[in-house]
Specification:
This protein is α+β, with helices and mostly antiparallel strands. The protein has 2 domains: 34 residues; 88 residues, Nucleotidyltransferase, domain 5. It is 39% helix and 16% strand. Strands 3-2-1-4 form a 4-stranded mixed sheet, with helices on both faces. The protein starts with 14 loop residues before the first helix and ends in a 5-residue tail after the last helix.
Length: 146
């Protein structure tokens, strides 16, 4: 069983499979798998509860996505991204630190409306730097504790 993808078909996830077909370079595959491994390692210890849900960040090249999740019930309480109209109309490009700061501020407002004051921060296997840090710090400025 593949430890990350939970499948027995190793041929689909080897570097050679993607590299031969020209889909990804070896470095891109290694970086993605390393991030997934980091995220799984952190998720062993972090889980969201009703009183303190999990704030999960996903970062793509063009956009940022943030979700507040109650893992016990398996539901998403709040979901935001830089694709939302409140953020998308304000900047030319949604994949930078400025958009991440707007996302963090808007996320803090939405959490306050829902009555959520404390969250557990899940950086999604990404380094706490740049866009991820901007979302976290602006959420903290909105009086959300984590």
């Amino acid at each position: 069983m593949h430890p990350v993808f939970k499948t027995n078909d190793y041929s689909l996830f080897t570097n050679d499979y993607f590299y031969r077909r020209g889909v990804l370079t070896l470095t891109e595959i290694d970086k993605r798998l390393a991030r997934i491994k980091r995220h799984k390692r952190v998720r062993k210890n972090i889980s969201g509860r009703s009183e303190r849900p999990r704030l999960c960040i996903f970062r793509s090249l063009k956009h940022l996505y943030a979700q507040v999740i109650d893992d016990n019930k398996g539901i998403t309480l709040v979901s935001l991204s830089t694709l939302d109209p409140e953020i998308k109309g304000k900047g030319k490009y949604q994949g930078n630190v400025k958009a991440a700061e707007m996302l963090g501020g808007l996320l803090a407002k939405k959490l306050e409306e829902k009555g959520i004051k404390k969250v557990v921060f899940d950086r999604g296997g990404y380094l706490y730097h740049g866009r991820v840090k901007a979302v976290a710090e602006n959420t903290r400025k909105g009086k959300i504790v984590f």
